[in-house]
Amino acid sequence: MCKRSFKYNKMKNFFLILISALFLFSCKENTEKQPEPKKSENGSIFVLDSKWQNQDGKEIQLKELKGKNLVVVMIFTSCTTACPLLVADMQKVESKIDPKKLKETTMLLVSIDPENDTPEVLKAYAKQRNMDGEPWLFLRSDKESVRELANVLAVKYKKISPIVFSHSNIISVFNKDGVMVNQVEGTVNAEEVAKTINGLN
User: Can you tell me which residues the record assigns to a coiled coil (predicted)?
Assistant: First the structure.
């Protein structure tokens, strides 16, 4: 009777150890499978080799922005609903960035409607909102390049009429190496975004 009880207890302990080990392994797997922050291949937005035009009609590549922190949003100038709110959020963020950090920062607005948002249109839009000149930069490109950048930023958009798009409301922050360090969607806490910028090297 004692021998049977001993064998039973030994087997019971073995199964308890086995179950505990499987549980720990399962927890480790779940931890390792947590999604990583959204970022471009190689960790930097500057690996994208697409060509863009700014509001002055000058052709540039994103890698030319390296060396400055970036606050990025995607809009279209004929938008009368979400985009004006996004632009206002960007202006609030800009106003709360430390003046020294602001010199090291580019506030970037990218058009999702390159067909209608020509450099001339972007220039007029910027002037109308007192966003012409540093740290503000407006960019447009071909549809493929815009879609590629939108994928990196996790911005979804869809054309629902010749001049209207539905799109995500996301502001993304990149450090001087083009690596995403923060991203906010919907209602933006300008102080929080500015704090991220102020804390970067």
Answer: none
CATH code assigned to 41-198 = 3.40.30.10
pTM of the model: 0.76
State yes or no: 167 annotated in a binding site. Answer: yes
Q: List the structure tokens of 59.
A: 């052709």
Q: How many residues does the chain have?
A: 201
Q: Hey, where are the domains in the chain?
A: 1-34, 41-198
For the record, the structure tokens of 103 come out as 């010199």
Is 79 marked as binding a ligand?
A: yes
pLDDT-wise least confident of 4-8, 87-91, 104-108: 4-8
Instruction: Confirm or deny that 83 is annotated as ligand binding.
Output: yes
What three-state secondary structure class fits 61? Answer: strand
The DSSP call for residue 35 is P
